[in-house]
Amino acid sequence: MTQLTLRAAISDDASGINAIYNPFIRESAATFETVEYSEAERRCWLDDRLGDPRYPVIIGADADSRIVGFASASAFDPRAAYETSVKVSVFVAPEGQGKGLGGALYKALFEALAGADIHRAYALIVTPNPGSIALHEGFGFAHVATLGEVGRKFGRFRDVMWFEKRL
After folding, report:
1. In 10 A of CB 114, how many CB atoms?
2. Residue 8 neighbours by CB under 8 Å, 6+ apart
3. I need a labelling partner for 6 at 20 to 30 A (CA). Which of 56, 58, 108, 133 fits?
4. Under DSSP, is residue 68 helix (H, G, I), strand (E, B) or coil?
5. Partners of 122 in the beta sheet?
6. Where are the domains of the chain?
7. pLDDT tens digits for 6-31?
8. Which strand ranges, in their side-by-side order, compose the sheet holding 142-153?
9. pLDDT of residue 97
């Protein structure tokens, strides 16, 4: 990627985010979601986050303004006592992987979270995924648990590694 623009997502980014994420739903165990997002559902997902400093969504766009990746923070759990913890994730289009885009997106995401009342960030990584593990460890995440065969996708049980970062 020669030129990359990082910015906060807006509602109109729904289809671009889906163009990145929906193939992961269809073709990868990297997410345990099994139903693709419609554009309307993604707009609602974005609108629920806009203006809430705890749940930023950062997009990366190429020189043609095409979204090539995004990073987001979501509620760790809907119960109130968990409000200072978030789950974070980053998804990058295949052509952008291995070029530092995931790291750039996470850097921007954690900068956005710096002003929020967030104490811990958690990342869930479906194994095997050495690239994601390296990315998270590079951002100071520590492996705190592995849940064995906690989910099933594409007819196979999968382990999920939990990583934690103090903010």
Report:
1. 10
2. 56, 57, 58, 59, 112
3. 133
4. strand
5. 87, 164
6. 5-119
7. 999 999 999 999 999 999 999 999 99
8. 5-8, 57-61, 67-75, 85-92, 120-126, 156-166, 142-153
9. 86
What Cα–Cα distance (Å) separates residue 146 from each residue in 5, 14, 139?
35, 32, 19
3-class DSSP assignment, residue 61: strand
Structure-token pair, residue 164: 């934690």
As a residue count, the chain comes to 167
* pTM attached to this predicted model: 0.94
CATH fold, domain 5-119, is Aminopeptidase (3.40.630)
Q: What are phi and psi of 102, to 5 degrees?
A: -60, -45
pLDDT at 95: 86
Spatial contact of 122 and 88, defined as CB atoms under 8 Å apart: yes
CB-based burial, 42-66: b 16+ in 10 Å, e otherwise: bbebbeebeeeebbbbbbbbbeeee
Q: How many angstroms separate the CA atoms of 66 and 95, rounded? A: 12
Listed in sequence order, the residues at least 6 apart from 132 whose beta carbon sits closer than 8 Å to its beta carbon are 30, 123, 125
